[in-house]
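Section 4.2 – Deliverable D4.2 (structural model, holo form)

The reporting period included a commitment to supply a predicted holo structure for the target in complex with calcium ion. Inputs used:
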Amino acid sequence: MRILVIEDEARIQAFVARGLEAEGYTVVAAGDGRRGIDLASGAHWDLVVLDLLLPGLNGLQVLRELHRTKPELPVVILSARSDVQTKLRGFELGATDYLAKPFSLDELLARIRVRLRGAPTFGDEHVLRGGNVVLDVARRQAGVGDRTADLSDREFRLLHHLLVHAGEVVSRERLLSDVWGYDFDPGSNVVEVCVRRLRQKLGPDAAIETVRSAGYRLAAE
Ligand code: CA
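Output (structure tokens):
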């Protein structure tokens, strides 16, 4: 699956690209509207992620052009402009979806999955298990073997995310977006610190693996 990201802000462009690549998509990024249109017309794409406030040609002009030349191509707008008029204009011009910044990477990925193959669903279970880790969602307590620990809000959300995605590698970008609400990389080690605290609380046997330069994985079995 090939996704074209048209976004001028370098840190958001890099963040979105890495998040999508971690999901297995092939990503090419363009930093302005003209370049985006040129790339769009020169190759096959499964979906476009489009910012609106772009230098030169703005996103709505890009959208109009994309819709004229490739009417079947899904376009997800990702924009700081969240007013109803702009959204409606985007949909009138053929946008498939619209996500306001700041956005959650998980939400963007979920919407893209819906467009490309249909979304997975998760039940709201009260106890989640993955490997030797058990999480009591109501009590916000985690256990490994005989050891039980109360979790802080971030630790809980981080572990919950890993358990919901047990067996998968979850990227640092995705955790920053979904647990911390960042739509850019703050360049700090908040994720690493939180994982370290979780491991201290759950003990050395907890099945939270570090996958070098990819992210973290909680064993499914
Ligand atoms: Ca922009």
